[in-house]
Target: 4-hydroxythreonine-4-phosphate dehydrogenase
Amino acid sequence: MGSLPIALTCGEPAGIGPEIAVKARQILGAEVPFFWMGDPRHLPPHTAHRLIHRPAEAMAVPANELPVLAHPFAAPATPGKITYANARGVVEVIARAVDMVLKNEVAAICTSPINKKVLKDGAGFGFPGHTEFLAFLARVEQVVMMLAAPELRVVPATIHIPISEVPRQLTAEGLEATIRITEAGLRRDFGLTRPRIAVSGLNPHAGEGGAMGTEDARVIAPVVAKLASEGMAIRGPLPADTMFHPRARATYDVAICMYHDQALIPIKTIDFDGGVNVTLGLPFVRTSPDHGTALDIAGKGIAEPSSLVAALRMAHHMAEARVRQP
Model:
């Protein structure tokens, strides 16, 4: 696997995905071997690229050219303007990448941002997002979304649901599974022999003894106690408002948070451009830049590639960590 390239899916052709793929190649050169999957017509004009027919051929492409595994789409793409006819191609590229990684033809998958509404309206896409689709393709019942940057890793126990639904959907069983998948992923993909896990509370001050809600003592604390009794390095529930200053962050390797914004606000504040979306629990490595399609700036040449560069680097290091596993 260490000698295999990473498959970078095209994402939404009208977004910034194609142009930041080119920029990432210019920055990374031969440091991280990857190839881009999509329709060559969707790349920025005059892109120096070379068509390949098999993933392994990407390894021999000069560093100043972008290796491209072509996948035909229904129509050309205009930056910033959605073409629903291309939705089917976006879905096919993701599925094709998963097929390749399951066949050990690539080391990992890095996915460019998609427009979920476009995929739903244009291709009947029936999944909330990338993560759920990848889990379906891999036949995995539950996966975990982790956002990672050099200074912080966070995992939201509940993700894209209204805040009013969080207390109902936050269950002991679901939280325990999330923590176990996270701990195993940090061991396997990040080389941490005993990951230190901090678990936030749901309510202000972690419920303050029941004065501000019962979920912390009733749902979260028993899960933490159970896992700690098994030898896991875990603490909580902790007040979320004191978990993310520098001294606190130095005491753990990942923060398990109870809902979307509790996890994503701190990491996007600390490292907005360098955050990486990682899916834990899959039988393969998958990363993604932590931003959207940015249709409003697509094609203007100002899209920042830092998150994609970080996602490719992280996919490379995670794949290497799996190879090193005994």
